[in-house]
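Action item from last meeting closed. Structure (562 res):
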């Protein structure tokens, strides 16, 4: 057991767990993450994974990954594979406990038979429309089905024949016999089984009746010996039903605890809607770096540790509320600021010719890779030559007083190399656009030394023109224009809130030579520009592609004070 003070999770859920352990209700902690494999996981699921796994770890307990795969119409192997990959990437370890509700189909069937025998379930011949109509509404009680009082023998016979495939889809269902006038709609004789002549990704054609999610979920937790079933608030109204099943069956009883879902601002987290963004072409697949999916965030370069920190920062509560998207960006910046190697890349290059630097000379400067961390001394050798690229907006021909970068007659430091002074501006004769600058350098400032105590205010990043590699750089903005994309005017749709300018592609950026060898997905700080990674899908040695993970909050002030 951990001391309260050094527990990563400390919230109303851990209080409940502490109380359960103290009262002897459980003598261990066992959690699970139970996705339906009907889409890709998103940032909200990342919270659930981190919470469930984190709590299990914190109590020295166990964690299961379980697929609640009860609906073969919407589920696919592709989703199962993606979810396994994502949960592993998030850092959760289920050891040998990769579970599937479909592994319990036979047991669930037997339990359904038990309910029938007890007079707690019946086969209903009403059509789906009639069932809906009989169900009543929030303001009106439901009515009993005319088939509700069938004999146990008839129910057993019909249920066996449902399983044997004698009936077409939708012709019959098995229902629990609870209370058609309950104020909780979930207790109005919920459906336990429906007929679906569908192949299942795992059980193939072994079954033509499938358990409803609600019939499978709680019993799967029970079978696995889960102690604390943590789930989102919408399951609160299902809890009495799950309890009813467990009590009628007389089986092991997990405790369910509900918490508010994590929904960042400017973000949609619902598979049903995310799938539309993919299918309707608003994004380029589930792993588009703008998507709030785990696969999108992985491709974008969000570190799993930073996602975990974000989950910890957002906390766990019982009441709904959106978490600022900026908090996620903050967690990512924070992590990368500490861990990302620094490199130089020029996104919008402007050429400088250093007129007093020998034509064929190349010098190598050892520049620190982790200047943010005094304990790390690694350097890389950066080539310097007569022609250099700097960022176009680091030069102004007619600068305001507070502009400390390059301007005619001004001197700046090229990071880790030399002081240079601008001596000339070459323009396109027709358009007036600046094409090139002429500079001189001070040999006494080699390696960024300060000759005769002379200080310069500006330090610029740069790359050697001859040695730089060309790259494509992708800048991302928020996928939605508004804080709450779930809200839209009447007659509209959430897709009306999509930000049409969420992707900017820059061609012809110039990056320092070592970046050509960077591994897919590797993350860097492009000094003064932000954090970037090598796009693991699009980048090749012949065509480098970088994604901007997140911008630097303060691009200029920091470095100019160095
Ligand atoms: P969606 O609304 O995206 O379709 P879901 O709840 O239908 O999600 P499941 O596969 O059933 O998707 O979710 C698996 C687990 O993740 C559930 O326990 C669910 O409570 C939890 N979960 C889903 N969305 C969130 C969220 N936004 N924040 C925290 N946990 C979530
Ligand atoms: Mg669900």
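Sequence:
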């Amino acid at each position: 057991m951990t001391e309260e003070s050094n527990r990563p999770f400390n919230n109303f859920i851990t209080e409940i767990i502490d109380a359960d352990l103290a009262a002897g209700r459980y003598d261990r902690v066992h959690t699970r993450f139970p996705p339906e494999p009907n889409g890709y996981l998103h940032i909200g699921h990342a919270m659930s994974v981190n919470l469930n796994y984190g709590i299990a770890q914190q109590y020295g307990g166990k964690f299961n990954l379980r697929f609640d795969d009860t609906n073969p119409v919407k589920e696919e192997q592709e989703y199962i594979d993606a979810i396994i990959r994502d949960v592993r990437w998030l850092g959760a370890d289920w050891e040998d406990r990769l579970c599937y509700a479909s592994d319990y189909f036979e047991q669930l069937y037997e339990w359904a038979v038990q309910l029938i025998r007890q007079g707690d379930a019946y086969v209903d011949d009403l059509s789906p429309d009639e069932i809906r109509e009989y169900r009543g509404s929030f303001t009106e009680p439901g009515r009993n089905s005319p088939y509700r009082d069938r004999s146990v023998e008839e129910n057993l016979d019909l249920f066996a024949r449902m399983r044997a495939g004698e009936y077409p889809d939708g012709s019959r269902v098995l229902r629990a016999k609870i209370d058609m006038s309950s104020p909780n709609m979930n207790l109005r004789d919920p459906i336990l089984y429906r007929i679906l002549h569908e192949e299942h990704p795992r059980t193939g054609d072994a079954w033509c009746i499938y358990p409803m999610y609600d019939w499978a979920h709680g019993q799967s937790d029970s079978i696995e010996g889960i102690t604390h079933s943590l789930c989102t608030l919408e399951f609160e109204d299902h809890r009495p039903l799950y309890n009813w099943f467990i009590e009628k069956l007389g089986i092991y009883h997990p405790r369910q605890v509900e918490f508010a879902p994590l929904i960042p601002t400017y973000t949609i987290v619902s598979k049903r809607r995310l799938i539309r963004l993919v299918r309707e072409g608003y994004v380029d697949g589930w792993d588009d770096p703008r998507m709030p999916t785990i696969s999108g965030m992985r491709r974008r370069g969000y570190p799993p540790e930073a996602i975990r920190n974000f989950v910890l920062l957002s906390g766990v509560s019982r009441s709904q509320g959106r978490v600022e998207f900026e908090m996620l960006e903050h967690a990512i910046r924070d992590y990368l600021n500490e861990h990302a190697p620094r490199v130089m890349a020029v996104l919008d290059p402007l050429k400088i010719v250093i007129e007093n630097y020998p034509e064929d000379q190349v010098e190598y400067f050892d520049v620190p890779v982790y200047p943010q961390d005094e304990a790390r001394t690694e350097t890389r050798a950066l080539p310097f030559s007569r022609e250099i690229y700097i960022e176009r907006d680091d030069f102004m021909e007619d600068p305001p007083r507070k502009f400390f970068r390059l301007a005619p007659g001004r001197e700046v430091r090229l990071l880790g190399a030399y002081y240079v002074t601008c001596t000339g501006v070459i323009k396109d004769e027709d358009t007036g656009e600046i094409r090139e600058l002429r500079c001189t350098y001070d040999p006494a400032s080699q390696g960024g030394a300060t000759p005769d105590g002379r200080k310069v205010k500006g330090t610029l990043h740069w790359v050697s023109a001859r040695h730089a590699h060309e790259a494509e750089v992708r800048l991302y903005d928020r996928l939605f224009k508004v804080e709450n994309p779930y809200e839209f005017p009447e007659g509209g749709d959430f897709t009306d809130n999509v930000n049409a300018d969420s992707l900017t592609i820059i061609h012809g950026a110039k990056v320092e030579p070592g970046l050509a060898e960077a591994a897919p997905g590797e993350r860097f700080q492009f000094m003064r520009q932000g954090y970037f990674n090598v796009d693991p899908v699009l980048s090749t040695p012949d065509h480098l592609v970088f994604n901007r993970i997140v911008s630097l909050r303060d691009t200029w002030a920091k470095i100019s004070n160095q």
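Note appended to the action item: The pocket of magnesium ion (ligand 2) is lined by residues 36 (CB under 6 Å).
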